[in-house]
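Case study 2.
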Amino acid sequence: MDSQQRNDGTGNDHDLKDTQDHADFQQNIPTRAAVHASGSGKQGGAYKEIVEWIKALVIAVVLVFLIRQFLFSPFIVDGPSMQPNFETGERLIVNKILYTIREPKFGEVVVFDVPEQGRKFIKRVIGVPGDKIRLDGDDLYINDKKIDEPYIKEAVEAAHAEGRLYNEKGSTSDVAELVVPEDTIFALGDNRSDSTDSRVIGFVSDKEVVGRADIIFWPLNKLEFIKHWTK
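Prediction:
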């Protein structure tokens, strides 16, 4: 009799334990679900962050393209034709929008396409439409008036001190009197004795002008805005 009661008591104990374990299990279900949901949230957040980065990169690429296409573009100086003011390897920022607002002016440094050579040149604007140009040795005349050229003054004086002309090379050194046609410019290199410019390639069409060189940004020790000498 006692044995039967003891067995009944043991059975009740097992039932209570099983019931408690089951209750604990049910209580743990929401906890595990919450952990799972938290992991999914982290994964979702990482995905969203990646998408945002991709969007930012795409926008940046588009902006760079638009800026280079319509506003500004880099240019690398190649050759001695603009010495002493520009050296080979210098990197410039070219303002492409300026000449959509107004025409080039005397003394401005411009970059333009040379289709027959498949490359770009950098030169200085000497004549604009209607100007009568004459280059006699180191003397420049525009509309019969002798023009000072401060951007090459020191180089010219140094050449004269040596008893020679600064502009002395070849049959294109001098320019007989000519008039700049409409929608073109007459451009020369600052290094008059070593420059392929309008004396050789002729007048530069407005359509070929890329823009005005405005900033030297490399090398860093030469970082500066380019000075444009206008008359």
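The radius of gyration is 39 Å.
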